[in-house]
Amino acid sequence: MNIQTEIKSAVDPTKLEKLAEVAVKVGLQLQSGQDLVITAPIAALPLVRLITRHAYLAGAGLITTFYADEEATLARYAHAPHDSFDRASGWLYEGMAKAYANGAARLAIAGDNPMLLASQDPAKVARANKANSMAYKPALEKISNFDINWNIVSYPNPSWAKVVFPDLPEEDAVRKLADAIFAASRVDVADPVAAWAQHNTNLKKRSSWLNGERFAALHFTGPGTDLTVGLADGHEWHGGASTAKNGVTCNPNIPTEEVFTTPHALKVEGHVSSTKPLSHQGTLIDEIQVRFEGGRIVEAKAAKGEAVLNKVLDTDEGARRLGEVAVVPHSSPISKSGILFYNTLFDENASCHIALGQCYSKCFLDGASLSQEQIAAQGGNSSLIHIDWMIGSDQIDIDGIKPDGMKVPVMRKGEWA
Ligand code: ZN
Ligand code: ZN
To answer: Where is the signal peptide, in residue numbers (predicted)?
Structure first.
């Protein structure tokens, strides 16, 4: 237990408390009497306890937390029977879906070791992920359709910190990751709640401008990239705080620097190169180069992790098409930190990105009232996966293309034009 205490002391308790407060008041906007479901790695216990206290102070009805343990996961890979990897705890996800249907909010704490499964059999990992994605669907749909207010924040788990800073002693690595999380989450200032209000206003300005322009497509150019991303019919840009179908305005991602919308699943043409490595379930996929035809990836290469990339692309029909395009300035605080977090929540907010797979129904005008069929007819993609990867840098230019072909500069050298 000594090590635990030492590591805990590497995390600034005042800032951790502020992160808990921001998660409840900004991230969730938890309502009086509302129930809350929390999922967290066991290492995040100090943050879970602070969030639980702040949530009850904010009037939470009942809080239920589910912990995951990395040792237990590894024991499964070492000793579970073969058919275990085609199974998932469907009953648990059905219960979560029921809780959300009854109005509970959802908080996830991220911070798992991104390399936990790196040396496990990739076929087992893929089977377990697929089984889990399928079982998770009823609960995930409530979240991705934005039925409820939800939030995800991070905790500097020591096993994650050692991946990010492999050359530092564990305690220093945890302290450095903690400080980076606090800075990116804007809790290292006197009044984080006010700082978030200002940040939300700035993001809203960007998304309102893009919504006013009604671009038909975005054209990305840069080294190894000449990509035209057609936008879905009736697409809507979002960024920062947004309002869930239950009427609560929350900040789902902390941190967040992006404005994002839905591409047209059939209208993406050209080639694109990744600008940062993508950490996918324990595998690093680096120097990705893909070519799109009619919205579909027809050629995919990667200097590292190519086999895993191709497995991902074969998940289902929608896995080769885009579900999201996002604009992030190169000067974002996460990008300036220069740290590769091996965690999409952070890395996607360092750079313009695209996501393979499922689209967000909220990224359509009047999205809440559209059926799955209408969303598909307007160009929205569907898939079991949603994987963001980074295509932005200080060498990327973006033009917005109007329906009549007129070009409007959106970004030059990675900054808003
Ligand atoms: Zn994104
Ligand atoms: Zn995404």
So the answer is: none
Separation of CA 365 and ligand 2 centre (Å): 19
Which residue positions in the chain have pLDDT lower than 70? 1-8
DSSP letter for each residue of 226-239: EEEEEEPTTB--EE
Domain boundaries, the chain: 3-184, 213-237+258-416
Query: Minimal CA–CA distance to 118: which of 344, 323, 282?
Result: 282
Q: What pLDDT, on the 0 to 100 scale, is given for residue 1?
A: 47
H helical segments located in 10-101? 13-22, 45-57, 70-79, 90-101
Q: How far apart are CA 319 and CA 96, in angstroms?
A: 26
pLDDT at 118: 86
Dist CA 184 CA 173 (whole Å): 16
**Of the CATH numbers 1.10.540.10, 3.50.50.60, 3.40.50.300, 3.40.1830.10, which one belongs to the domain with range 3-184?**
3.40.1830.10
Closest ligand, as measured to the CA of 386? 2
For the CA of 323, the nearest ligand: 2
Q: Phi, psi (5° rounding) for residue 113? A: -65, 115
pLDDT digits (tens, 9 = 90+) for 24-46: 999 999 999 999 999 999 999 99
Ligand 1 centroid to 125 CA: how many Å?
A: 24
CA of 11 to the centre of ligand 2 (A): 28
Specify the residue for token string 């699943």: 265
